[in-house]
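Subgroup meeting minutes
Present: P.N., E.W., G.H.
Scribe: E.W.

1. P.N. recapped why we're keeping a running log of single-chain structure predictions: easier to compare across weeks, and new members can see raw inputs and outputs side by side.
2. G.H. added today's entry (520 aa).
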Amino acid sequence: MAEGHGDIRRARGAGGARPPAAWGWPWIRPATLRPRAAALGWALLSAACAPSPKEGAPAEDSGGEAAPEDDRDGDGVANADDCAPDDPAVYPGAPEACDGEDDDCDGEIDEIGLGNPDADGDGRGACADCDDAAPGVAPGEPERCDGQDNDCDGLVDEDWDADGDGWAPCMGDCADDDPAKHPAADEVCDGEDNDCDSDRDEGWDADGDGFASCRGDCDDADAAKSPWSPEVCDGEDNDCDGEIDEFIDEDGDGWGLCGGDCDDADPARNPDQAEACDGEDNDCDGALPADELDADGDGALACGLDCAEGDPRVRGGQPEACDGLDTDCDPSTDERIDADGDGFSACAADCDDRSAARGPGFAEVCDAEDNDCDDEINEDAACGDCWTQLTRAPGAREDEALVVCPIWSSWEAADATCAGIGLELLSLESAERNARLSEELRLTIGDTVWIGINDRDDEGTFVWSNGADASFSAWAPGEPNDYDGEDCGQLYAGSAEWNDLPCWYELPFVCAAAPAPAAR
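Output recorded in log:
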């Protein structure tokens, strides 16, 4: 029978084949036993099958395996050599486990080695290291502001997160004294930047009119209703002041929009006014006299400067040309005379004999004029990223050139750019000029631009960029309010209203010639 047990052990050693069921022994998977314990089991099996020695005879050599009474825990190591003779998981050579025990009987607990590797080489084994794949993360490491638990204390960036919201300033917290503000916070309608993206109340202005419901928009589904919207006669509270179609006389002419005033920004237009030769419906009757209609589209009216309404080549104030026509409505003009003294007459290639700054060969400058009389306005080189726009709209100065700059700049940078080409930021000194140029700019550059109005030197005292007093203003309701240090003027071209903004904001801008002192 001893030979049969030897066959069983050889079978296991040869690959773990199951012994025949005829042997009558229950099969135990070797993988469930420690190597030494498995060997001991087979030794006991062999001993049981061996013939008993005669009484008093010496015991046969067992081949070095510990007898059962010498290995109480059955781990294959004699009690005398086992540092835990009652624990089968602890014996010399056992793998070290993360259990606070000396599993391999070498006098050290949870040391780095078999069962407790140090994969990242930071001197802490996996038993103590909260991230054994990161060499900068282990107990005792200094906490750094990097979004990781460097010291394995269960907290992230705790030394930098003053408000305990889980976000430190170096990770994007814009208000580390307020746990309700951090990059993962939801934006709420409170006038604050809750999610630290530098915008306030985004997502709450459903109609895109610039006002969220928490900032006074009484109907956030209608862009025509906001605190900046003008009140119109439509049975609605357009300006969100709680009143409907209230009488408003913005221009002080005694007439409101709901009382028949067709333009409540212009005191020269109301039902009491007489018609004037300006192309406007001054008496608000919805019609213009025939002599106020610009039939030939030359910008002049028959009641004014147009001596030949019907011929767009002729109108008062334009340069005389060598064409046999009285193009400037001045019959006494001699087209051979050098009227502006620049050395060239209208018939000698002077394209504008009223201006000494325009003549053949003259240098091209950024003024929307053909300075060199080559029939081209070479503004690209002179104006850079800007362009010139000649406007004769009512409210503009005669043949006024605007330099339109779609360059997003601070107010100071825009002012310096205008000064660099001999102009100033756009000034709007009257209701008519403000209304007409606002509409023209809305169609060319967009809804919002810098203008020259500012109170940078004396808070509350607004002047134009050249220092002139601002006797006319068109501030939107509630403006100016100096919110967040606002000292520079912005034009909303769509509504012809002004707003004050911090001067460091960036907007497009428009340059124009300074007005004559009498226009102030």
